[in-house]
Amino acid sequence: MSKFGVIVMGPAGSGKTTFCQSLITHLQLNRRSAFYVNLDPAAEHFEHQPDLDIKDLISVEDVMDELRYGPNGALVYCFEYLMDNLDFLTEGLDSLTDEYLIIFDMPGQIELYTHCPYLPRLVKFLTQPGALDIRLCATYLLESTFVIDRPKYFAGSLSAMSAMLLLDIPHLNILSKMDLIRPQMSKREFKQFLVPDTTLLDDPRRKTKTSVSVDVHGSDPRDKNALMSGATFQRLNAAVANLLETFSMVSYLKLECTEEDEGESIDAILSHIDHCIQYHEAQEPKELPDEEFEEPQED
Ligand SMILES: Nc1nc2c(ncn2[C@@H]2O[C@H](COP(=O)(O)OP(=O)(O)OP(=O)(O)O)[C@@H](O)[C@H]2O)c(=O)[nH]1
């Protein structure tokens, strides 16, 4: 039997857990079942408690206490441990039916999406035909306020593309925390950021932003080697923007969070997720009551 899932990724604090909680609430309101899997071994506060929690296997806190690791090392250790104990996931998920949308809430450490091998292995395991065989879609969240600082926006978009290429499954990018950008930018102005392209580098409001010298190592500014000149920094931004434009792979959906917009926004994102995992196609065609098929009356 098919299983369906969505893996929620993004940098630290981008709103992953909040998005998962909104998704669960929305599914429940629409009489659909959610199964919430927390894979962040450092997560603490949940509105909806996880149905399966990596912390029941291992937690960052325990690793830091027992092995004296720092938070990032402990996170990596937890994922290595999960990879050695994948039965934990099989036991928790094997009996789920196609009624459920399985939501995987991931940690925010960026190294997990760039150079650690765990995520591709995890996705391969979850999607493996004949085993859990989950039809999986990835979502990658980025804070909408990044668009104010163009280099940050392009760097974030590059990390979204990196996650996309790493996992090789249907993928949606989402700009979160839209309430924080609204006071600073009109809907019309914001629209241009839904698809990154090189024209966005010409920021009329912030000419100085990309022309200052940037201390790339955070070290003593008197050390000339540690400084990247304005021109070099601009060329780097242009190269990143070009790369994104050439591959034309990154575009964004918006995650609104005000009371009046949130439902519609989550609904739209959920439709995209359903489409990516072909949820509707896999459901039995439902017989609609006769009145649904009544021909419209002629005037
Ligand atoms: N203003 C605003 N704040 C938000 C929104 N979504 C989340 N937050 C806040 O942003 C902070 C981080 O949110 P989380 O949902 O924990 O983010 P996360 O990506 O799961 O964080 P990590 O697991 O630490 O990587 C919290 O203080 C949230 O209350 C939003 O739409 N608007």
From TrEMBL:
The keyword GTP-binding applies. It comes from the Eukaryota. The keyword Ribonucleoprotein does not apply. Keywords: GTP-binding, Hydrolase, Nucleotide-binding. Belongs to the GPN-loop GTPase family. Binds to RNA polymerase II (RNAPII). This is GPN-loop GTPase 3. It comes from Remersonia thermophila.
